[in-house]
C-alpha cells in the first residue's frame, strides 16, 4: 500500500524551500500519486504549505475517494457548482488572500486558471512541475512492484509481437497480437502510442504502427508500453527479417554496447550526464556521434517518460537509490542503415541495479 501521508509531508517540506503557498493538483498522474486512486475524473487535490491536504471531487464520489485515499474530501454538485468554484472556496478556507499557487506545468484546465485569476487578482501562479517530478522520482516498494508488473506485461507483448512477425503481415496486425498479450498479462493499457514499425519508418522520431506490410531484408522495431495500477513500463527490441545490411546489424550491437555501459554506470550520486557519457563514448568511438541525439533516457513511473531525471548530454540531474529509468532511447539517425533500437527500464539499487524488462537483448533474426 502507498503511504500517501508521507508523500504529502515530503511535498510540504519541499514547499518550505519555495515561496509557494499551496499546490493545486489536477493532472491525472499527480492525482494518482497523492490519492492512490486510478478510477477518478473531475477531481483536484490542494496541498498547502501548512495544514491539511484536501480533495475536491463530484459529490457522488466523495465517500469512495475519502475511503480510498484517507484524505478529507469535499464534493461539488454539478452543474450548480463546478470544480473551479469549489477549489476557490477551499483555498479561501485556508485563509490565504494573496496566494502563490503552484501548478503542474502542462495539465491546468483554462477554465480553472481563469476562475482563479478572477478570484485572486493579486495572487501569483507558478510552475511546480520540476519539484513534483523530483518528488516522484524516488519510488517506494509498492511503486516498484507496480512497475515490475507492467514490465512483465510489456515483455509478454514483445514475445507475442515477435511470434506474429513475418513477411506480408501489417504492423497493425502484429500490434493487435502484442496488445492482446499485454492485456491478458495484466496490463491496464498502453501509456503511449505503440510502435511496431518497419523499414525506413524506423527512422521517424515518434512513429506509430501503420498498415505497412513487413518486407524481407528490413528491420522491425518493437517498442511497447504497459501499465499496472497507473504505473508504466516500456521495452524496445529489434527484429531482422532475413538478411539486413551489415552496417545496420553493426549499429544494433553498438547501441546495445552503449546501453550496457550506461546501465553499468548507473549508481547513486552520479549525474545523468555521466550516465549519458558512458553510452556516448561508445557511439563516438564507432564514429556515429553526428547521427546521435542528446537524450538517451528518462525517469519512468506514472509517465512513460518523466522529466526527472532526464538522462542526456551535460545533464546535472542526480541519480539516486530507488529511481527507475529507461535506457537507451534513440537510434543512429542515418538513412539506409540506421533505425535499430533497444530500450529497457532499470531500478537503481544501493549496490546493484535491476533490469525490470527481463527479456533477451540480442538482435532477433527471423
From TrEMBL:
**UniProt domain Peptidase M24: residue ranges:** 147-349
Top-rank taxon of the source lineage equals Bacteria
Q: Which InterPro entries match?
A: Creatin/AminoP/Spt16_N, Creatinase/aminopeptidase-like, Creatinase_N, Pept_M24, Peptidase_M24B
An example of a Pfam family matching this protein is: Creatinase_N
Q: Where is the Creatinase N-terminal domain?
A: 7-138
Kindly provide the name given to this protein in its UniProt entry.
Xaa-Pro peptidase family protein
Amino acid at each position: 500500500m502507498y503511504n500517501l501521508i508521507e508523500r504529502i509531508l515530503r511535498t510540504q517540506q519541499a514547499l518550505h524551500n519555495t515561496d509557494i503557498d499551496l499546490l493545486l493538483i489536477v493532472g491525472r498522474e499527480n492525482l494518482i500519486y497523492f490519492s492512490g486512486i486510478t478510477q477518478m475524473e473531475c477531481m483536484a487535490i490542494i496541498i498547502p504549505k501548512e495544514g491539511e491536504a484536501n480533495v475536491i471531487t463530484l459529490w457522488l464520489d466523495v465517500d469512495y475517494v475519502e475511503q480510498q485515499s484517507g484524505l478529507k474530501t469535499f464534493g461539488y454538485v454539478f452543474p450548480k457548482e463546478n470544480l473551479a468554484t469549489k477549489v476557490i472556496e477551499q483555498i479561501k478556507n485556508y485563509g490565504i488572500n494573496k496566494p502563490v499557487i503552484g501548478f503542474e506545468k502542462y495539465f491546468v484546465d483554462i477554465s480553472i486558471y481563469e476562475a482563479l485569476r478572477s478570484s485572486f487578482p493579486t495572487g501569483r501562479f507558478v510552475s511546480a512541475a520540476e519539484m513534483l517530478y523530483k518528488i516522484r522520482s524516488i519510488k517506494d516498494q509498492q511503486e516498484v512492484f507496480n512497475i515490475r508488473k507492467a514490465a512483465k506485461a510489456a515483455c509478454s507483448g514483445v514475445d507475442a509481437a515477435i511470434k506474429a512477425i513475418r513477411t506480408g503481415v501489417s504492423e497493425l496486425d502484429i500490434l493487435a497480437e502484442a496488445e492482446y498479450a499485454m492485456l491478458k498479462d495484466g496490463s491496464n493499457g498502453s501509456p503511449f502510442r505503440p510502435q511496431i514499425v518497419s523499414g525506413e519508418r524506423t527512422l521517424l522520431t515518434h512513429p506509430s504502427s501503420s498498415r505497412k506490410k513487413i518486407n524481407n531484408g528490413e528491420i522491425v522495431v518493437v517498442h511497447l508500453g504497459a501499465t499496472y495500477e497507473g504505473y508504466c513500463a516500456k521495452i524496445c527490441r529489434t527484429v531482422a527479417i532475413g538478411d539486413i545490411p551489415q552496417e545496420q546489424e553493426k549499429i544494433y550491437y553498438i547501441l546495445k554496447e552503449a546501453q550496457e555501459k550506461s546501465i553499468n554506470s548507473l549508481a547513486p550520486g552520479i549525474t545523468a550526464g555521466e550516465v549519458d557519457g558512458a553510452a556516448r563514448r561508445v557511439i563516438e568511438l564507432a564514429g556515429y556521434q553526428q547521427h546521435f541525439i542528446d537524450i538517451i533516457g528518462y525517469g519512468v513511473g506514472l509517465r512513460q517518460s518523466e522529466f526527472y531525471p532526464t538522462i542526456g548530454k551535460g545533464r546535472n540531474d542526480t541519480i539516486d537509490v530507488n529511481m527507475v529509468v529507461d535506457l537507451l532511447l534513440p537510434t543512429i539517425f542515418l538513412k539506409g542503415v540506421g533505425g535499430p533500437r533497444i530500450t529497457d527500464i532499470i531500478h537503481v539499487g544501493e549496490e546493484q541495479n535491476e533490469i525490470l524488462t527481463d527479456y533477451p537483448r540480442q538482435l532477433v533474426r527471423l
